[in-house]
């Protein structure tokens, strides 16, 4: 039983470690776009579809860019909001 619990813990640890993204894997732009079907841009470029995508989601990642956020840009004990100029 102890071996089973140890093996299960080890497997969970390995999966959790492999799920971590490397910062180099991220695109330099904070904006990203996701389509349904997944390969819609390639289909459109190749001329294999004339239909519009079923869904398109545009989203952005927050960027710190070396700034000090809490205590600097956002003062302590003051209200602050999530997001920037678009709905979050």
How does this structure look, described?
The protein is of the alpha+beta class. It has a domain at 27-77. It is built from 2 helices and 2 strands; from the N terminus they run αβαβ. The chain has helices at 2-19, 40-46, and strands spanning 31-36, 55-60. Strands 1-2 form a two-stranded antiparallel sheet. It is flat and about 55 Å long. The mean pLDDT is 76.
Specify the structural class.
Answer: alpha+beta
| Sheet of most strands | 2 strands, antiparallel
Strand order of the largest sheet: 1-2
Whole-Å distance between the termini? 47 Å
Topology order in helix (H) and strand (E) letters: HEHE
Percent range of helical residues: 25-40%
Beta-strand segment tally? 2
> What's the number of helices?
2
Low-confidence stretches: none
Output mean pLDDT.
Answer: 76
Rg, rounded, reads 21 Å
The percent range for strand residues is 5-15%
The 3D shape can be described as: flat
Structure at a glance:
The protein is of the alpha+beta class and 88 residues long.
Annotate the secondary structure layout.
Blueprint: H1 2-19, E1 31-36, H2 40-46, E2 55-60
Antiparallel strand pairs: 1-2
Summary keywords:
88 residues; alpha+beta; two-stranded antiparallel ribbon; 2 helices; 2 strands
